[in-house]
Specification:
The chain is mainly α. The protein has two domains: 83 residues, RNA polymerase sigma factor, region 2, helix turn helix motif (Rna Polymerase Sigma Factor, Chain: A), CATH 1.10.1740; 82 residues, Arc Repressor Mutant, subunit A (Orthogonal Bundle). The longest helix is centred in the last third of the chain and has 31 residues. The radius of gyration is 19 Å and the shape is globular. Belongs to the sigma-70 factor family. ECF subfamily.
């Protein structure tokens, strides 16, 4: 960050190359939209460039912790500004990637169910679950990002897992009823 603050574009490119993919995956999971996530990442890296000159090496916060916080807050802002969409709008969002269409459809349906279930969690539970289980961060780093204690993260995870299990169980029951009827 210090080198970037001094205008070192090579250091900036190295930082972007190292952090773009994992943080883009995180932003996509939080926003649920790849295009919005790309916009978030562009803004996040602009903020890195602008704040690098004021970066304090003596702070207790690691770069990745600070950057997760920046990306998380930008994602929350995007979601707040988002216009409601209908399922009909998303029906035409078809991509032709992957080996077999049936496998892709099954994977997409599973991801949609999980994403829908995650979206029903309160914001802090959703962030804790996303950081710890989808981004595979430790509880300590998630606590730093969320600015809460490790105990609070563990509590959020327990409540989040419990609520996800309830939501997914209800969906499973509804799907079984539909397939029988």
């Amino acid at each position: 960050m210090i080198r970037i603050g001094d205008g070192d574009t090579t250091a900036y490119k190295m930082l972007v190359d190292r952090h773009l993919q994992p943080f883009l995956a995180f932003a996509t999971r939080v926003t649920g939209d790849r295009s919005e996530a790309e916009d978030v990442m562009q803004e996040a890296f602009v903020r890195v460039w602008k704040t690098a000159g004021r970066w304090d090496m003596n702070r207790n916060t690691r770069f990745t912790t600070w950057f997760y916080r920046v990306v998380m807050n930008l994602c929350i802002d995007v979601k707040r500004k988002r216009k409601p969409t209908s399922d009909f709008d998303e029906a035409f969002d078809v991509q032709s990637e992957g080996p077999l269409p049936d496998d892709m459809l099954r994977d997409k349906q599973k991801a949609a169910h999980i994403s829908a279930a995650l979206s029903q969690l309160p914001e802090r539970q959703r962030m804790a679950v996303t950081l710890c289980y989808l981004q595979e961060l430790g509880n300590r780093q998630a606590a730093d990002i969320l600015e809460v204690s490790v105990g609070a993260v563990e509590s959020l995870l327990v409540r989040g897992r419990t609520r996800l299990a309830e939501i997914l169980a209800a969906e499973k029951d509804d799907l079984l009823k539909e397939s029988v009827g």
